[in-house]
Amino acid sequence: MLDHTGFVVIDLVKARKFYEAVAKPLGLSIQTPHKDFFLLGLGAGKVPYLWIGTLKPSYWVEGSKPGINQMHIAFVAKDRATVEEFYRVALAAGGRDNGKPGPREERYYAAFVLDPDGNNIEAVVRS
After folding, report:
1. What pLDDT band is residue 63 in, cutting at 50, 70 and 90?
2. How far apart are CA 19 and CA 32, in angstroms?
Protein backbone atom coordinates (compact mmCIF):
# COMPACT_ATOMS: atom_id res chain seq x y z
CA MET A 1 0.00 0.00 0.00
CA LEU A 2 2.72 2.51 0.92
CA ASP A 3 5.65 3.42 -1.31
CA HIS A 4 7.41 5.66 1.22
CA THR A 5 6.92 8.21 3.94
CA GLY A 6 9.37 10.35 5.82
CA PHE A 7 10.13 13.14 8.18
CA VAL A 8 12.69 15.83 8.85
CA VAL A 9 14.98 15.60 11.87
CA ILE A 10 17.11 18.17 13.64
CA ASP A 11 20.25 16.08 14.18
CA LEU A 12 20.92 13.53 11.42
CA VAL A 13 23.75 11.79 13.33
CA LYS A 14 21.57 11.27 16.42
CA ALA A 15 18.63 10.11 14.29
CA ARG A 16 20.79 7.66 12.37
CA LYS A 17 22.15 6.14 15.58
CA PHE A 18 18.59 5.63 16.83
CA TYR A 19 17.25 4.15 13.57
CA GLU A 20 20.27 1.90 13.03
CA ALA A 21 19.57 0.42 16.47
CA VAL A 22 15.86 -0.22 15.87
CA ALA A 23 16.44 -1.47 12.30
CA LYS A 24 18.35 -4.54 13.40
CA PRO A 25 15.66 -6.39 15.39
CA LEU A 26 13.07 -5.50 12.74
CA GLY A 27 15.15 -6.96 9.91
CA LEU A 28 15.52 -3.58 8.19
CA SER A 29 18.56 -1.78 6.86
CA ILE A 30 19.85 1.74 6.30
CA GLN A 31 20.77 3.09 2.88
CA THR A 32 22.58 6.43 2.46
CA PRO A 33 21.98 7.84 -1.04
CA HIS A 34 22.71 11.43 0.05
CA LYS A 35 24.71 13.17 2.79
CA ASP A 36 21.58 14.94 4.11
CA PHE A 37 19.24 11.94 4.42
CA PHE A 38 19.06 8.19 4.77
CA LEU A 39 16.47 5.55 3.97
CA LEU A 40 15.23 2.89 6.38
CA GLY A 41 13.70 -0.13 4.70
CA LEU A 42 14.05 -3.57 3.21
CA GLY A 43 17.17 -2.72 1.21
CA ALA A 44 18.41 -0.74 -1.77
CA GLY A 45 15.68 0.02 -4.27
CA LYS A 46 12.95 -1.76 -2.31
CA VAL A 47 9.69 -0.17 -1.18
CA PRO A 48 8.24 0.75 1.17
CA TYR A 49 10.85 2.84 2.90
CA LEU A 50 11.09 5.62 5.46
CA TRP A 51 12.97 8.78 4.38
CA ILE A 52 14.75 10.53 7.28
CA GLY A 53 16.76 13.67 6.68
CA THR A 54 17.49 17.32 7.30
CA LEU A 55 16.41 18.74 3.93
CA LYS A 56 13.35 21.00 3.88
CA PRO A 57 10.63 19.23 1.84
CA SER A 58 9.04 21.16 -1.02
CA TYR A 59 5.56 20.31 0.31
CA TRP A 60 6.06 21.99 3.71
CA VAL A 61 3.74 24.88 4.46
CA GLU A 62 5.04 28.09 6.00
CA GLY A 63 5.94 27.63 9.66
CA SER A 64 6.87 23.94 9.38
CA LYS A 65 10.03 22.78 11.09
CA PRO A 66 11.48 19.52 12.43
CA GLY A 67 9.64 18.15 15.43
CA ILE A 68 6.66 20.52 15.18
CA ASN A 69 4.29 17.84 13.88
CA GLN A 70 4.77 14.51 15.62
CA MET A 71 4.69 11.57 13.22
CA HIS A 72 3.62 8.03 13.98
CA ILE A 73 5.23 5.06 12.25
CA ALA A 74 4.37 1.44 13.11
CA PHE A 75 6.81 -1.29 12.07
CA VAL A 76 5.75 -4.93 11.72
CA ALA A 77 7.52 -7.21 14.19
CA LYS A 78 7.72 -10.97 13.67
CA ASP A 79 6.87 -11.85 17.28
CA ARG A 80 6.60 -10.51 20.83
CA ALA A 81 10.30 -11.02 21.48
CA THR A 82 11.05 -8.72 18.53
CA VAL A 83 8.73 -6.05 19.97
CA GLU A 84 10.57 -6.30 23.28
CA GLU A 85 14.02 -6.15 21.61
CA PHE A 86 12.91 -3.12 19.55
CA TYR A 87 11.87 -1.36 22.76
CA ARG A 88 15.12 -2.22 24.55
CA VAL A 89 17.44 -1.08 21.77
CA ALA A 90 15.36 2.05 21.07
CA LEU A 91 15.72 3.21 24.68
CA ALA A 92 19.44 2.36 24.65
CA ALA A 93 19.87 4.44 21.47
CA GLY A 94 18.32 7.57 22.94
CA GLY A 95 14.60 6.91 22.51
CA ARG A 96 12.11 7.71 25.26
CA ASP A 97 9.40 5.41 26.57
CA ASN A 98 5.94 6.06 25.16
CA GLY A 99 4.38 2.69 25.99
CA LYS A 100 6.13 -0.43 27.27
CA PRO A 101 5.75 -3.72 25.39
CA GLY A 102 2.39 -5.31 26.03
CA PRO A 103 -1.06 -6.12 24.70
CA ARG A 104 -2.99 -3.09 23.41
CA GLU A 105 -6.14 -4.83 22.24
CA GLU A 106 -7.10 -8.33 21.26
CA ARG A 107 -4.39 -9.89 19.05
CA TYR A 108 -2.24 -6.70 19.11
CA TYR A 109 1.05 -6.60 21.03
CA ALA A 110 3.13 -3.44 20.71
CA ALA A 111 5.68 -1.06 22.16
CA PHE A 112 5.99 2.68 21.60
CA VAL A 113 9.04 4.95 21.84
CA LEU A 114 9.69 8.56 20.99
CA ASP A 115 12.70 9.04 18.72
CA PRO A 116 15.18 11.89 19.41
CA ASP A 117 12.85 14.35 17.62
CA GLY A 118 9.68 13.24 19.41
CA ASN A 119 8.21 11.07 16.64
CA ASN A 120 6.15 8.16 17.95
CA ILE A 121 7.74 4.91 16.72
CA GLU A 122 5.92 1.61 17.27
CA ALA A 123 6.73 -2.05 16.77
CA VAL A 124 3.68 -4.31 16.59
CA VAL A 125 2.87 -7.95 16.11
CA ARG A 126 -0.67 -9.08 15.35
CA SER A 127 -1.65 -12.64 16.13
Report:
1. confident
2. 13
